[in-house]
TrEMBL record:
Domain of life where this protein originates: Eukaryota
Biased composition range(s): Polar residues: 51-60
GO MF assignments: protein-membrane adaptor activity
Annotated protein name in UniProt: SUN domain-containing protein
Alphabetized UniProt keyword annotations: Acetylation, Coiled coil, Cytoplasm, Cytoskeleton, Endoplasmic reticulum, Membrane, Nucleus, Phosphoprotein, Signal-anchor, Transmembrane, Transmembrane helix
Organism of this sequence: Oryza punctata (Red rice)
Length: 452
């Protein structure tokens, strides 16, 4: 059931005129807009206190007119309020409102389009872009330039390394050469010192050998010798010996030794000397000095071979030459002896023309060869040859060198053989100036020829 106030407003002519007039159109539109924005108010269905609740059957015309009048009054009373509200809503122009709404809708539409575009791109990914050949060519060119620069840098580094290697090799080679030269110089110096030391050692060995061969007097022997000297001087046991007397005795002894050595140079008996019966019985091929013509005179060779058993006066060339650097000579002694030493003589190096013909490595053998007119009663005879000694003729020593017999228990011999296996450099001939055999005659008939 409609409210009486609404009915009165609808029936009021003033309200209809206001709605119909052009001037009242804007307030009416504003009012309608305000009504749309306002919350909906529930109309009071209760009867107005000033309006009696009349029943429709009892209402008459008077009653209807009174109601219409009341409704009109209420509408008139409410009209200023609507105008005020319309005036408030009309303070903002309509186009601004429309523009704001359109802007909001556009923003919302843009957001929706953006979200939809994102969803579509996610569902449909973009196909790969075609490769730009020009860009790839430029990239390849740049890569090629970088590789070329790296290759150049590598070549330059390699060249520098090779130069450094050559420099190091040169320095190392120079250092190695200097070190080698220094080591060679030190080696040569050390070898020279070792050679000098060897020479000194040989000299010391010879001196020690000489000391060993020398017979030193003991105290008893010296006292005995001193007593003999006193007796020779005619002094008694308690008498003092004058120094002049000792000097005179020493002079006599020295003169006797000088005379003894002047007899044959070394003061030892030579049982191979030619003047006492020694002779050369056999030898290797002799060197022919004059060729074919000289070989016709055999007497010359016989005379030459006897030179090695005669005293030599140190004349160069006065020797018996044998062909080649090796050979032998067999000598028969004047009689059977027990040998003590062998002496080999060559020309002195102070007057020699060539020392290369001197024999070097030698071996001396001996045996006893019994003759028809010679016999030693009680002595054993043997034709077996025994090595008596081996030695080396040294050019650095004196030209007359004596070598002791080293074979033990040598018996009686009357034959000596000298074999030389080398000389001091000559391949044509070897010269022998003199050979001497020293020893002593047997004193007891029970001595054997050889017991080795």
């Amino acid at each position: 059931m409609a409210s009486p106030s609404l009915a009165a407003a609808a029936a009021s002519p003033l309200t209809s005129i206001d709605l119909a007039s052009p001037n009242a159109s804007r307030p009416a539109a504003a009012a309608a807009s305000a009504l749309r924005k306002r919350p909906v108010l529930l109309l009071d269905q209760r009867p107005h206190p000033s309006t009696p609740n009349l029943d429709s059957s009892s209402a008459g015309p008077n009653h209807l007119s009174a109601a219409a009048a009341a409704a009109g009054a209420a509408a008139v009373a409410q009209q200023p309020r609507r105008k005020k509200a319309g005036h408030t809503s009309s303070s903002r122009p309509r186009w601004q409102t429309a523009l704001s709404v359109a802007a909001k809708n556009a923003v919302l539409l843009a957001v929706l389009l953006y979200v939809g575009d994102l969803a579509w791109r996610a569902a449909h990914p973009a196909p790969p872009q075609p490769v730009d050949q020009a860009a790839m060519a430029g990239y390849d060119a740049r890569v090629a330039d970088v590789e070329a620069s790296l290759a150049r840098a590598f070549r330059m580094l390699q060249v520098q390394l090779e130069a450094v290697d050559r420099k190091i090799d040169g320095e190392v080679g120079a250092a190695r050469g200097e070190l080698t030269a220094l080591l060679e110089e030190k080696r040569l110096g050390l070898e020279g010192q070792l050679k000098r030391l060897d020479a000194r050692t040989d000299e010391l060995s010879d001196a020690l050998g000489g000391l060993k061969r020398m017979e030193f007097l003991t105290k008893d022997e010296f006292e005995k010798f001193w007593n003999e000297v006193k007796e020779s001087l005619g002094s008694g046991p308690g008498m003092e010996v004058d120094l002049d007397q000792v000097r005179a005795l020493a002079r006599e002894i020295a003169m006797g030794e000088i005379e003894k050595h002047a007899a044959d140079g070394i003061g030892r008996v030579d049982y191979a000397v030619a003047t006492a019966g020694g002779k050369v019985v056999r030898h290797s091929d002799a060197y022919e000095r004059g060729g074919f013509i000289s070989s016709l005179f055999r007497g010359d060779t016989a005379a030459s071979q006897q030179k090695i058993l005669q005293p030599s006066f140190g004349e160069p060339g006065q020797c018996f030459p044998l062909q080649g650097s090796s050979g032998f000579v067999e000598i028969k002694l004047r009689k059977g002896i027990i040998p003590d030493a062998i002496t080999l003589e060559h020309v002195s190096k102070d007057v020699a023309y060539d020392m290369s013909t001197a024999p070097k490595d030698c071996r001396v053998s001996g045996w006893y060869q019994e003759a028809h007119n010679e016999a030693y009663s009680g002595h054993a005879a043997s034709a077996k040859m025994y090595v008596l000694t081996e030695f080396t003729y040294d050019l650095d020593k004196k030209n007359v060198q004596t070598f002791d017999i080293t074979a033990p228990d040598v018996g009686i011999i009357n034959m000596v053989r000298l074999d030389f296996t080398s000389n001091h450099g000559s391949s044509v001939l070897t010269c022998i100036y003199r050979i001497r055999v020293h020893g002593h005659e047997p004193v007891s008939p029970g001595m054997s020829v050889s017991q080795s």
